[in-house]
Amino acid sequence: MFLKLPKQLLGFIRSAIAELKFISFPTKADTFKLGTVVITTSLVLSILLYFTDWLFQILRNLLTSINI
Asked: What DSSP element (H or E) covers 32?
């Protein structure tokens, strides 16, 4: 039993190394391009969320100021 575990572990490590050879990492240009997309999307969505919150704050203030 103790001899079987290291063989299984060694087999796992060999297969993991073999799988790593199939990985293609992005180039510097791809990383910059995709990073720009992520940052731009985050900024646009945060601005949209800010104005949505601002609009709801105005609506809430108008509704709470009405005396019925």
From this structure: helix 28-65
pTM: 0.62
Please give the DSSP secondary-structure letter assigned to residue 1.
Answer: -
Separation between Cα atoms, residue 60 and residue 68, nearest integer Å: 15
How far apart are the C-alpha atoms of 10 and 56, rounded to whole Å? Answer: 60
How far is Cα 18 from Cα 46, in angstroms, rounded to an integer?
42
Token pair 């108008």 is at which residue? 62
Cα three-residue angle 65-66-68, rounded to 5 degrees: 140
Residue 16 has pLDDT above 80, yes or no: yes
